[in-house]
Amino acid sequence: MNGFTVLMYHEIILARQFKQLKNLGIKVRSGYSDKLPELLFCYQAEFKKQMQYLFENGYNVIGIEDLIDFYYRGKDLPEKAVLLTFDDLYKSIYQNAFPILKKYNFSAVGFVVKDWIFNEKQPESENYSVCLSKEEVEEMGVVFNYANHSTSLHKRIDGKSAFQMATKELLIKDLNKCAKIVDYGDVFAYPFGLYIKDNVKWLKELDFKLAFTSKPGKNTSKNNPLELNRNAVPFNFDLDKFKELLV
User: Fold this and answer.
1) Cα–Cα distance between 231 and 217 in angstroms, integer?
2) What residue ranges define each of the domains in the chain, with the CATH number in brackets?
3) Pair 165, 141: CB distance under 8 Å
4) Low-confidence ranges of the chain (pLDDT < 70)
5) C-beta of residue 152 within 8 angstroms of C-beta of residue 114
6) How far is CA 103 from CA 55, 97, 112, 143, 176, in A?
7) For the stretch 106-122, what's the b/e string if a residue is b when 16 or more beta carbons lie within 10 angstroms of its beta carbon?
8) Please, are residues 202 and 56 in contact by the beta-carbon 8 Å criterion?
């Protein structure tokens, strides 16, 4: 039975850059304030080892179109299929992951929050996770395909996400706006991995092809393509643990 693993990254940082006590949160165009948990950071040294391992051990890095073919056109996936995904699009992805992906000729998916992307390049910051600019996002297009992560519904409200609390009308309007600026407007990642049954139903009614959770596990043809599993590659993760994600 064909199956595949989805890996989820957020920030790819240099070890010397990470000082949790100085982490003041995110800096995005909309001004929304939040803080990435330590779990969602990954050291570049570890990321290098992970990508090298995939390359040297015959893993096939696939793309969105391969999954659409798999779920909707009956096509097989290659053995040892892996999808690389990056949420929110922070500057560290451009600086520390993009060159490594290019080196191995790996494709990747970037989930874009439309209102978070800056119109102009922003300075680096040791204290904030700074989002990319339109120009930087465009430059990474030689490696990345971009998909929908909402326009402005990636917010926490009393322990829930704005996305899962949105009315159907608001959700449709929001997703349609983001769809206009990405390669795959009908491919989605649930903000914070949070959603309700109605969200899945509405995405299906809108003819969304794929949607990704943050629930760990491998995917097969039996998975609902609108509730696909995704494995976070957590902070300070050694190579042996990384290998276990791929089994």
Assistant:
1) 6
2) 3-236 (3.20.20.370)
3) no
4) 1, 17-21
5) yes
6) 10, 10, 23, 10, 34
7) bbbbbbbbbbbbbeeeb
8) no
pLDDT at site 21? 54
Whether the predicted model's global pTM rises above the 0.85 cut: yes
pLDDT at 15: 81
Task: Kindly state the tokens that stand for 152.
Answer: 């402005």
DSSP 132: P
* CA gap 61, 59 in Å, rounded: 6
In angstroms, rounded to a whole number, what is the distance separating the alpha carbons of residues 219 and 217?
Answer: 7
**What integer pLDDT is reported at residue 242 of this predicted model?**
96
Amino acid (1-letter code) at residue 203: L
What does the DSSP assignment read for 74-118?
-PPPPTTEEEEEEES-BHHIIIIIHHHHHHTT--EEEEE-GGGSB
